[in-house]
Amino acid sequence: RRQPPSEQALSDLVTFYDITVDVDERLRWLREVMKLAPSTEEYRWLLVRALLEHDDAAEAAKLIDERLQGSGKDVPAVVLLRCEADLRQGKIKEAVERLKSLLAAQGRDEEVDKQVLAFAQEKALDEIVEFILQSRVKREPEKSEVVFELAAYYRSRRKNDEMQKVIDRFIAESPGDAMRQRRLNDVASFLSSGQDLDPAIIVARKAAGSPTAGREEWLRLADLLTEQGETDEAVELLERAWSASATADERIDVDERLLSVLIGEKKKQTDAAAQKKTAEFQLPTIFTGAGFASSDEESKKDKVPEAVAAFARKLVSASGAVGD
Questions:
Q1: pLDDT 10s digits, 58-84
Q2: How far apart are CA 238 and CA 222, in angstroms?
Q3: How far from chain centre, in Å, is Cα 322?
Q4: How far apart are CA 9 and CA 12, in angstroms?
Q5: Does the pTM exceed 0.70?
Q6: Cα atoms found within 13 Å of the Cα of residue 259, Cβ hemisphere only
Q7: Dihedral angle at the C-alpha atoms of 106, 110, 116, 120, nearest 10 degrees?
């Protein structure tokens, strides 16, 4: 008499068709081994994953539901698997509700919070991503990392008004002047990192205008103003930062920034002059005699940019006045 295949034999068939990448046959024998050993959880989850990959999400959902209690104590990985079955059936609303229920029951567990956020980001469930980031800010409003994470999310979705509300509240809720100054600096850095120059300059001005402002604030504002093309004010701030520098290295750092600003201004003037010159008709140099009888060395010789020379003359003049 023929004996029915053993559990081991069916399991070996599953393994064989997994190795040979025969999806249909693997799925067939997973169903068979599941019938033979329905209490073996390993087979259940292998079958669930195979069904999801085979676009049989409805059958997978039934198998998952057999292990869900719905009491808020379900294993998060199982709930996420059930949400994936919902999404593969186009049931986005149901998946979102499941995730919210899971977060309501276990969201204070940091690992659960991370798992759900990663899942929501992978599946582009913006409602859940925003919900989690907002919840983190509510739990730890003093933590800059979670505040900027939410602000960055709004920026990536072009919700600039929402982003501004988050950072304005973060500054307004500062527990003291020292913390307010620190938060102003952090916000200015965050905004500038996303090329939000105008709001970054507004915040940097507040930081630089504080009674406790110093070298760090003046340098940050000078850098932003330089990007904006407001070099005159940037130079003034750099001079103040130079005076506030405590070491030679700090002064050299400011010197290099000053030189960069001045040369950059000179380059803009040179580019503008070159554009104007190219727009005008000019005779070939063979007819004008330009460069005739001049040495290559002289033509190649670099001149000190006028902006740098003017700044140097200003410093020399100021030092002479002090000496008198």
A1: 989 998 998 888 777 899 999 999 999
A2: 7
A3: 49
A4: 5
A5: yes
A6: 7
A7: 140
